[in-house]
Amino acid sequence: MTAADRSAADPPAVAVREVRVALDRTPILHGVDLRVPAGQWVTVIGPNGAGKSTLLRAIGGLLPFTGEISVFGTDLRRVRRRQRARLVAMVMQQPVVPAGMTVLDYVLLGRTPYIPPLGRESQADVAAAWEVLESLDLSRLAERVLATLSGGERQRVFLARALAQGATLLLLDEPTSALDIGHQQEVLELVDGLRRERGLTVVTTMHDLSVAGEYADRLVLLVEGRVVATGPPEQVLTEPLLTTHYRARVRVIAGEHGPVVVPVRR
Amino acid sequence: MEPVPRPTRLRPWWLLAGVVAVVGSAAAGLVLGPVSLPPAGVAIELLNLLPGVELESGLNPRESAIVLRIRLPRVVLGLLVGAMLALAGGAYQGAFRNPLAEPYLLGVAAGAGLGVTAVVALRGDEHLGSMPVTVPLAAFAGALGAVALTYLLGVAGGRDRSPATLILAGVAVSAFLAAVQTYLLQRHIDVIQEVYSWLLGRLSGATWHDVRLLLPYSVVVTVMVLLLRRELDVLSVGDEEAAGLGLHPQRSRLLLLAAASLGTAAAVSVSGLIGFVGIIVPHLVRMLAGPSYRVILPLSVLFGAAFLTLADLAARTMDIPREVPIGVVTAFLGAPFFILVLRTTRRVAL
């Protein structure tokens, strides 16, 4: 069976149909459709306030919505929270860093969906957390207090907690916004490696358009709560689209791994 | 090979330290006081309580009565009240993600105060001491009524059911109930002194009756809160992330706050308002044994029990032959401690 056959037969990792979300009665998403085949990396781009984070939260099951969202063929509304947390793991843009908590304890929080409501971690949970810590090269930091780590190290620990959930759909809200350019690349390469290794599906939001195009299989341009363009990076990162929707003056240059977007002074 | 780091758990030596603190403070509470007694004699009197044991303690009947009828129920009640207040404090701090949260936050104190004031005002000429059943009942009902009112108000505050909304609702309810209480006291000026001495909190005159009232609640509340201790650690990443991890943050918080409020109301109903225990003890434990609620909550039970028993010992012996109200003792220790916590906590999540 070829990869194309498989993707046609299996349910997509994410299927979003006609989804509307309102926050405090203000409509944010106005009927969004989105399909993410299993194993792909899809990045949602768009100007500030377009609803990127809201879309990600809705897919993560963290917001009430109308319309339909299913994850690996399971209707998000019919799945119990614990079950959902085994399918979808989300890393917020600015995760809360609990005071005094060690890296190991923090990563173990990711095992919550496997721990009975009033129980505690089993040896298997600890082993699962260790496996993730080791594969992310974090085991030497296991006993450090999370709040004392650098930005790049923290981002890896946030990822580790999400991976400890054992979910195959990873939602990353602006995973690189707090990082310098070197650490941005380090984290994104790490995510891409994990995706291939573990067969993960990745949906992220991102502000840096060139970086977004380099890593994603497909881009989704979201503007004022609607999808205005979707497709491979070369089809979405075009001068006309970006000029219209970002009100920016840019030049798009063909790069080694996708288009490079350069802002130009008016 | 280096030892493999382990996840945070309650280590046996901390548990042992807590048990030693409880036993030590209880022994001190029984032996010391205006009349100091020989420890060996006290120990033998306690052994005589066991069925089939009959040893010569060397204490005269008066001393024996002091140990068994006055000090023992008082020490046991102090242990239970201290354990409840400290456990409730730890639970509130975790549920609200606020290190300054305390057991009286949701209106428990104001409700209990109003309940007792109402009873005294209605019954007029009677003394609080002559109503051993009515007063605890009124305090208990007032405390739980106030917490229920706070919840209703907090939920009515809109869909944003954040911890801060509940805290603000608690402030509003407390202010309202305190106003009603003040009005009642103005109408019955003759009972002010008695109501205030109750409000200050006391363990003097503790009886086995009080212990029997509090014990079942203590057991239920301790079990409930300790079962939820891991969920408190999950809540520390905030409601949204906790929901992403498969938890029902609001449901967990409601359960925790209900249990902690029940424990506080039961403690208040027999001891009056003894302040600051719920702040001092969980914070001391946090500083010494780490920030995980899996450690803080069980140790707060033990060290809270020991702390209040020692505070009561100080209240009895600081100013012999008079007693200092125990609420004054804990406030003397608590107020500076509060400021210390305020200064060392960088970010207060409200």
Précis, in short:
Chain A has 266 residues and is of the alpha/beta class. Chain A has ten helices and twelve strands.
Helix content of chain A: 25-40%
Please identify the structural class of chain B as seen in this structure.
mainly alpha
Look at the structure and give the CATH class of chain B.
Mainly Alpha
Poorly predicted spans of chain B: none
- Across the major sheet of chain A, the strand order is 6-7-8-3-9-10
Q: Which pair of chains has the greatest number of interface residues, and how are they split between the two chains?
A: A-B, 39 and 28 residues
Mean pLDDT of chain A: 92
Corresponding CATH architecture of chain B: Orthogonal Bundle
Topology, number of strands of chain B: 0
Distance between the termini of chain B: 44 Å
Looking at the structure, the CATH topology of chain B is ABC transporter involved in vitamin B12 uptake, BtuC
Helix content of chain B: over 70%
CATH arch. level architecture of chain A: 3-Layer(aba) Sandwich
Give the helix tally of chain A: 10
Rounded to an integer in angstroms, the radius of gyration calculated over CA atoms of chain B is 21 Å
Instruction: Give the biggest sheet of chain A.
Output: 6 strands, mixed
Instruction: Count every helix of chain B, treating DSSP H or I runs of 4 or more residues as helices.
Output: 14
Question: What about the largest sheet of chain B?
Answer: none
Rounded average pLDDT of chain B: 86
H/E topology pattern of chain A: HEEEHEEHEHHHEHEHEEHHEE
